[in-house]
Design goal:
Shape: elongated
Largest sheet: 3 strands, mixed
CATH topology of the largest domain: Alpha-lytic protease prodomain-like
Oligomer: single chain
CATH architecture of the largest domain: Up-down Bundle
CATH superfamily of the largest domain: Cation efflux protein transmembrane domain
Mean pLDDT: 81
Number of helices: 9
Number of strands: 3
Low-confidence stretches: none
CATH class of the largest domain: Mainly Alpha
Helix content: over 70%
Strand order of the largest sheet: 1-2-3
Amino acid sequence: MAHSHHHQDTDISALRKACLLVTSFMLVELAVGLWANALVLIADAGHMFLDATALGLAWWAAQLSKREEDQQLSYGYHRFQVLAAFVNGLTLVALIGWISVEAVRRLLTPETMDPGPTLVVATLGFIVNLIAFRMLHHTSGNTNVRSAALHVLGDLLGSVAAIIAAAAVMIYGWLYADPVLTLCIVVILGRGAYRVLKESGHILLEGVPAGVDLSTIKQTLTKEIDGVDGVHHVHAWGLTAEKPLLTLHAQIPENAPVQSVVSEIKRLLKERFDIDHSTIQVELGPCPDDEHTHEHADAH
């Protein structure tokens, strides 16, 4: 548990520092973009504003997840991290849409820009985003932090595109560099957004956690534990990607030592399948749930 809290504290510290760093530079980039009339910098400042919002949301969610369970949220606040990741994924999709439209518009009607200030600020932006990305890279790597890191990675790539675009305009006068490179970034961001939305959506829909095979669990418990005649009604889901939960019904003989069988089931689930939290319903005869199902069917 202390190890888990250490990870949480590391995540919160990294998210806080990255959020403050990105927010500070966003204001600088916006000011220089307006001064130099460089649309690429103003657009990237808009991108950084979304990054700052995403990092702030992830920071808040990580802080909130430390709160203990209460009467309203009996499992605690861990899911806020998953919810934050899902919201960040949606903002990434919105950002991708906006960037794509802007890139196509610039392909059709190229725009001039002042490459000097753009190159300087884009280079500084690259350094700032690299520092923020490294901060987030040395954390627990949960879904919430990874979704925030994807925003920063997108902005890192945006800075690279702005540097190359500014250099291309400065050296060759080629105005198409900006939209062409932007569309390459859109593809990379799109893959990242899809992964984040898929993983966080799966958790929110109570999907079986990755790496948990229900049929393997049934077979293992039945074969390896004396006193377990059968396992059914197995359900697994996750509070977060790192916190799987499981419930199951175990049929055991009437003379079996119930307490030791349950302890053995829980030990095996933890050691073999890394499931800390499990709820076991012991049945000495037919499953009551199945009986209720048959009675309900007969009534109809």
